[in-house]
């Protein structure tokens, strides 16, 4: 997406001199939170006192939380929190006309086409609004503006991709059907995003969201704290703070090593309840009924750490509940309630919903009560421990995996294998990616944030499941040059798995290529990611990949194009490829054609000639066969609700 300055630097400087530099760069005056009227506010209530009350007594825990992405899930837009450049730039190629950005002292403003107006996007009136809040700080920043109606927010038409240092249309950072608009409704953050991106959220609309025009409602949205803060996991802290003002009380608890009744410590909960602390956000869920939703709108979500999560919300498990009237009712109201989040066998397929994966894992659901030890905290920690040598930033960036739990030790703590038994079990060399438990039992079969995410349903590779559900299996996500028949034969020989009936293509063409060429948009995204995954490239080579990734540069789905481009740049010879995944078709074809032509021209030098890769004996691409497979593409609309 093109970004250009509004004026040359010299013109800006001259303007500043003419107007008076002090007037141009005046600092925004401080306004106490309770007096802010144009956005949601942070307000203590019902025993919530905010993380600032925890800092003095728990400095180490506070420091690691403060360095985490949980804290920065929601932030007020300030010069310290905004990553994108707003200083007099124009962002082309968002919805409708260009988006103009500017700084006004410490404030951020944008001019763009009004998403709430009627008619085609390019014909909607221009509006100028102040950007007041941010979602995200790791992969993307989504910017929310004050609508002008009380505390209601709406979203800018552009999203800033942090690693790329670029803007992209909001529709281009989610996997959704081409030519289908992504919702931009006033009050969306207040009613939806607030639930999992803040601590103790209260929407406080007069009527249910979208039942009446937002402009006709009172919107008094507030939270206990922006972001996922201490009390999101430990519960309201007022009683704890009050009780421990007395140092003798603190020492008595410390010396007695006994539970503190004034606060919830997730690590002391049973594995089920401790995981539900994470599951309150990391799950697909819905209110049981309209009354429950209205109470949460007014008073906040009723769940508190330590409660039973299902008491106050419906948690779908499509296979276990396939005959459930409750699930059927949700699907009747929203046909994509299941298909937008789950594979056909009920396994979760979108990011941010790891709890749904955990509760379907055999290590969790089939364990006896006495031995049920698997929980979110088996691998992750909310606070970096003193024995962890990693800097806080590195710990946070690696999904807060606990020290020593990024390898096989996390699994071998429960699954007893002799030291030399791992390779006997995996049939791969000890130092290979094929002997990493995660790669085989938690493969990259979920999608989100323009990439693939590890499944959190712990399972074993299965060709039958790939055939029945379309979900890639771990073997073919690493051995991307191999067929399902090859994988099926290996699993039959090694583990006694029955070999399922396979089609002619499944017996003769690389499974990854079939997913990339004829799969649905989600399968194509996962296949494109796998072709750029370093272990897969090491196991399968890269000399044959370019034509398939080049083909995906023109996929109908923008998210698939983005992932394919990123993977293609990891293939030798293509690191410098220039391509814009949101450009028009003509520009995209112009970028892809040289990749295909260069690959074809090297046919005589090609050492890898494999019909499973559609590379003929003369080194040329088997174009007719490839086109025949492409014509079978699953073009059914798909919107994955990450």
Structural commentary:
The chain has about 650 residues and is α+β, with helices and mostly antiparallel strands. It folds into three domains: about 5-225, no CATH class; about 270-410, no CATH class; about 420-630, no CATH class. About 35% of the residues lie in helices and about 10% in strands. The chain has 28 helices and 14 strands. Strands 1, 3, 4, 5, 6, 7, 8, 9 and 10 form a nine-stranded antiparallel sheet that branches. It has a three-stranded mixed sheet with strand order 2-12-11. Strands 13-14 form a two-stranded antiparallel ribbon. Helix 22 packs across helix 23, helix 25 runs antiparallel to helix 26 (about 560-570) and helix 25 (about 545-550) packs antiparallel against helix 27. The longest helix is centred in the last third of the chain and has 17 residues, at about 585-600. The chain is globular, with a radius of gyration of 26 Å. The chain starts with a strand and ends in a 12-residue tail after the last helix. About 40% of the residues are buried. Mean pLDDT is about 90; it is low at about 5-25.
Question: Which percent bin holds the helix content?
Answer: 25-40%
Integer count of domains: 3
Q: How many helical elements?
A: 28
* N/C terminus separation: 23 Å
User: Could you name the ranges where pLDDT drops below 50 across 5 or more consecutive residues?
Assistant: 7-25
- How would you describe the shape? globular
**Binned strand content:** 5-15%
Instruction: Output the radius of gyration.
Output: 26 Å
What characterizes the major β-sheet? 9 strands, antiparallel
Tell me the number of strands.
14
| Secondary structural class | alpha+beta
What is the mean pLDDT?
91
């Amino acid at each position: 997406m093109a970004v250009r300055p509004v004026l040359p630097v010299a013109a800006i400087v001259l303007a500043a001199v003419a107007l008076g530099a002090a007037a141009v760069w005046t600092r925004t005056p401080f306004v106490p939170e309770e007096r802010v009227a144009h956005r949601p506010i942070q307000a203590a209530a019902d025993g919530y006192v905010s993380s600032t009350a925890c800092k003095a007594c728990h400095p180490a825990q506070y420091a690691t939380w403060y360095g985490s992405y949980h804290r920065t899930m929601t932030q007020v837009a300030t010069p310290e929190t905004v990553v994108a450049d707003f200083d007099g730039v124009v962002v082309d190629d968002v919805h409708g006309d260009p988006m103009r950005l500017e700084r006004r002292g410490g404030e951020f403003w944008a001019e763009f086409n009004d998403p709430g107006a009627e008619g085609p996007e390019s014909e909607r009136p221009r509006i100028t609004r102040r950007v007041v809040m941010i979602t995200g700080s790791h992969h993307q920043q989504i910017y929310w503006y004050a609508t002008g109606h009380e505390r209601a927010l709406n979203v800018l038409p552009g999203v800033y991709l942090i690693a790329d240092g670029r803007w992209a249309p909001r529709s281009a950072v989610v996997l959704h059907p081409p030519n289908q608009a992504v919702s931009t409704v006033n009050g969306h953050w207040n009613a939806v995003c607030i639930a999992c991106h803040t601590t103790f959220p209260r929407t406080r609309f007069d009527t249910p969201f979208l039942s009446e025009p937002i402009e006709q409602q009172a919107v008094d949205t507030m939270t206990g704290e922006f972001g996922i803060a201490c009390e999101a996991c430990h519960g309201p802290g007022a009683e704890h703070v009050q009780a421990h003002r007395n140092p003798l009380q603190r020492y008595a608890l410390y010396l007695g090593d006994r539970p503190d009744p004034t606060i919830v410590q997730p690590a002391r909960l049973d594995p089920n309840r401790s995981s539900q602390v994470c599951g309150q956000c990391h799950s697909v869920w819905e209110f049981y009924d309209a009354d429950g939703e209205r109470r949460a709108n007014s008073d906040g979500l009723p769940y508190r750490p330590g409660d039973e999560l299902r008491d106050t919300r419906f948690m779908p498990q499509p296979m276990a509940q396939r005959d459930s009237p409750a699930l059927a009712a949700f699907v009747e109201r929203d046909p994509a309630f299941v298909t937008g989040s789950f594979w056909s066998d009920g396994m979760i397929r979108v990011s941010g919903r790891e709890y749904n994966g955990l509760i379907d894992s055999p290590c969790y659901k089939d364990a006896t009560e006495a031995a049920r030890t698997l929980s979110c905290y088996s691998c992750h920690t909310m606070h970096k421990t003193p024995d962890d040598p990693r800097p806080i930033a590195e710990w946070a960036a690696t999904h807060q995996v606990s020290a020593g739990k990024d390898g096989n030790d996390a699994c071998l703590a429960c699954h007893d294998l002799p030291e030399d038994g791992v390779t006997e079990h995996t049939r791969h060399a000890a130092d290979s990616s094929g002997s990493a438990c995660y790669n085989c039992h938690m493969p990259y079969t979920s999608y989100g944030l323009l990439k693939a995410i590890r499944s959190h349903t712990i399972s074993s590779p299965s060709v039958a499941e790939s055939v029945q559900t379309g979900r890639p299996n771990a073997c073919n996500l690493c051995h991307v040059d191999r067929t399902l028949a090859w994988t099926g034969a290996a699993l039959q020989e090694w583990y006694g798995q029955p070999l399922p009936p396979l089609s002619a293509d499944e017996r003769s063409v690389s499974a990854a290529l079939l997913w990339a060429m004829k799969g649905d948009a989600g399968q194509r995204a996962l296949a494109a990611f796998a072709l750029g995954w370093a272990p897969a490239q090491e196991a399968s080579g890269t000399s044959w990949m370019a034509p398939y990734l080049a083909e995906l540069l023109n996929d109908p789905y923008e998210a698939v194009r983005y992932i394919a481009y990123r993977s293609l740049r990891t293939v030798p010879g293509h690191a410098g490829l220039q391509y814009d995944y949101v450009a028009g078709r003509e520009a995209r074809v112009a970028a892809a054609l040289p990749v295909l032509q260069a690959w074809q021209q090297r046919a005589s030098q090609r050492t890898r000639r494999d019909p499973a890769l559609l590379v003929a004996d003369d080194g040329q691409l088997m174009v007719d066969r490839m086109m025949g497979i492409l014509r079978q593409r699953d073009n059914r609309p798909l919107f994955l609700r990450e």
